[in-house]
From TrEMBL:
Residue ranges annotated for the Radical SAM core domain, each copy included: 270-512
Top-rank lineage group of the source organism: Bacteria
Protein's name according to its UniProt entry: TIGR03960 family B12-binding radical SAM protein
Pfam families xref list: Radical_SAM (PF04055), Radical_SAM_N2 (PF19864)
SMART domains: Elp3 (SM00729)
């Protein structure tokens, strides 16, 4: 990793650094608030016409590697008259000191107050970041409620996957953008630039109106929600004539035209990923019915093998990273993944660069790719994700994997030298019974038994990892009832007992799981409407922070807040979570268009209940999910027939002779 310069950086005129610096020795990991990373940009404040503060609402160690923020940061800073800086959630120890000393939420780049920026953009990967949003807004000195803000406040703009249902945070944000950000931020910047150049006519309201008129920026204040006496939504309608009835998602169709990040940020403090990550495609049409990311990012758009090769080379040269991640929702599905992996493996053979490919495919091809990528001697872990324990439940979720396929694949991994594999499942899926979950134990036993027989060794292991199912908007499971946490926890207890019932096999099986309570709260937030905003606020006022972290999450705090707030609206926590919706119910996000046809989603939900599987439209005819006609496009996949090469010889990455780490 590159060594950072120790030359003191100049302090910007509006920097809070002088006040902040004396607080940092009193907090944990102060380096996370210092900025100045390789790849960071500090621009002249006065020379900029539009200024963005970008936030990932979690700690630096989670937020810095976030691809979405890194891409937008670079895209915006490439514009000569635009300035973008980053801010992350501060830990409670620093928050306390900032409040005591009057230090506002600041950016890590030039330590400028977030309130001074024109746009405060927050990217949400998960709804459990909502309490951190409230902390940041409040620490910034921005009124918590959008309705109370003045022209002196930035536009608070939400993006990321959670923005596909921003209703629970509708009171706290000014706007939300659905879909890909690269082109959207440029369009928003142009609107802000023009409005400011005209002297800010009509104030904040006019700016928001201009954004809303693009039809891809949702401004909640321009929409009213009416409710039925039983608590369901009657309708969501614009409260003025000049905004659209439906807001559409943005889709960047040509990924080769947007080869970002070109200059990845190299963290100063430890982070969850320290690697150069290249997105090799967006979208997924495998059709797993629980997967919001797969649904809302359609259609599939591949980045070409040549662009990927070029990005890897330039990204490594810039950053000095030793690891490359070839990312997507299912990387082994890229039409030229074989050539891509062998080309990169060949290019970096004998260097200290390792390549990894997150893929949850359950087939031998995955192992071939992993072998190719481990030529440098570094073996990345192998994860297979059957997701459901029984054949029946896998049909319900549309994960087309047979038990025999899984066992054959894992045994192939063992015979090819892997000693440890991870198997990923979900618990709490629609229609799930105890028996479906207990079949996970049979599968794990079978894997170890077959692995031992094939290798003749007892030195093999597998880890069973279980996540809680959360029904998400814009998926076929958006109508499904969630299971109660105590039922989930009971099933997991039975599963643990079943795994350990055979001690010889159980010894070789690790078991990791999350209990059901955080999933239920995530379910409340993901399918909530505007009334849930009062619960979020109450939890935040009662100390809720970093809810995505098990050590900070308090289930009781959420249950108590929901019990205090929701009955006033005639609803409760169960109403939002364990209640199945019917076909005609207006869902809080129906006016937000992900491109998916609601009738198709309903039909797929019915197919799920009939245990009917749906193929992938990459390899079979279109099944009319609605996205391609809505975007006036088609799926974009190869093969292009091009080769990864020519790449120039690798500079600066070779180790001395024989050097492998
Ligand atoms: S519209 Fe057809 S081709 Fe396009 S993503 Fe949906 S199913 Fe696939």
């Amino acid at each position: 990793m590159s060594v950072q310069s120790t030359t003191p950086r100049p302090v910007a005129a509006n920097s809070v650094w002088p006040q902040l610096e004396s607080l940092l020795p009193q907090v944990t990991k102060p380096i996370q608030y210092v900025g100045g990373e390789l790849g960071a940009v500090v621009k002249d404040w006065d020379a900029a016409t539009v200024r963005w503060a970008l936030m990932y609402p979690d700690a630096y160690e989670v937020g810095l590697p976030n691809q979405g923020v890194q891409i937008l940061y670079e895209v915006l800073n490439e514009l000569p008259d635009v300035l973008a800086e980053r801010t992350y959630a501060v830990w409670p120890d620093l928050e306390k000191l900032m409040r005591a000393h009057g230090v506002p939420q600041f950016t890590v780049d030039a330590h400028r107050p977030v309130r001074d920026f024109d746009v405060f953009g927050i990217s949400f990967a998960t709804e459990l970041g909502y309490t951190n949003l409230l902390s940041a807004i409040d620490l910034a000195g921005i009124p918590l409620l959008a309705a109370d803000r003045t022209d002196a406040d930035p536009v608070v703009l939400a993006g990321g996957h959670a923005a596909f249902n921003p209703e629970p945070i509708a009171d706290f944000i000014d706007a939300a953008v659905l879909g890909d950000g690269e082109e959207a931020v440029l369009e928003i910047t142009a609107i802000v630039r023009e409005w400011k150049a005209e002297g800010c006519p009509g104030g904040r309201d006019e700016l928001l109106l201009r954004l809303a008129r693009t039809e891809s920026v949702y401004v909640p204040r321009f929409y009213d929600v009416d409710y039925l006496p039983d608590g369901r939504i009657q309708r969501v309608v614009p409260n003025r004539a000049d905004v659209p009835f439906r807001v559409h998602k943005r889709t960047t169709m040509d990924l080769d035209a947007w080869p970002y990040p070109k200059k990845p940020l190299v963290p100063l403090a430890e982070t969850v990923h320290e690697r150069y990550a290249v997105e090799i495609f967006r979208g997924c049409t495998r059709g797993c019915r629980f997967c919001q990311a797969g649904m809302i990012t359609r259609p599939v758009r591949e980045r070409s093998i040549t662009t990927v090769g070029q990005m890897v080379q330039e990204g490594l040269e810039f950053s000095g990273f030793h690891e490359v991640g070839l990312l997507s929702l299912s990387s082994a599905d890229h039409s030229e993944i074989g050539d891509m992996c062998s080309g990169l493996a060949q290019q970096y053979e004998g260097t200290n660069v390792s390549l990894s490919l997150p893929s949850t495919r359950v087939d031998a091809f995955n192992i071939d790719l992993a072998q190719e990528l481990s030529r440098n001697g570094r073996r990345t872990g192998l994860t297979f994700a059957p997701e459901g324990g029984s054949e029946r439940i896998r049909k319900v979720i549309n994960k087309m994997v047979s038990k025999d396929d899984l066992i054959r694949t894992v045994v192939t991994a063992y015979t090819n030298g892997w000693r440890q594999v991870k198997l990923y499942f979900m618990c709490g899926l629609p229609t799930e019974t105890d028996e479906d979950v207990l079949e996970i134990a049979d599968m794990a036993h079978e894997v170890i038994r077959a692995g031992r027989a094939a290798t003749g060794s007892k030195d093999i292991r597998c880890t069973v990892s279980i996540g809680g199912f959360v029904p998400k908007p814009h998926t076929p499971f958006q109508w499904a009832a969630m299971e109660r946490p105590e039922v989930i926890d009971g099933r997991l207890k039975l599963l643990k007992q079943a795994i350990n019932a055979d001690r010889s096999l159980g010894r070789a099986i690790g078991f990791r799981y999350h209990d059901g309570e955080p999933s239920l709260i995530e379910g409340l937030l993901s399918r909530g409407d505007r009334r849930v905003g009062a619960v979020i606020r109450k939890v935040w006022e009662n100390g809720g922070r970093f809810d995505g972290w098990s050590e900070h999450f308090s289930y009781q705090r959420w249950v108590d807040a929901a019990a205090e707030v929701l009955p006033g609206f005639g609803v409760d926590l169960d109403w939002y979570t364990t209640r199945e919706r019917d076909e005609l119910e207006v869902l809080p996000w129906d006016h937000l268009d992900s491109g998916l046809d609601k009738d198709w989603l309903w039909q797929d939900w019915q197919d799920s209940l009939s245990e009917y599987e749906q193929d992938d439209c990459r390899w079979t005819p279109c099944f009319d999910c609605g996205v391609c006609p809505a975007m006036d496009t088609e799926i974009q996949i190869g093969p292009t027939g091009k080769k990864l090469l020519p790449l120039t010889p690798v500079n600066g990455l070779k180790l001395p002779a024989g050097g492998q780490q």
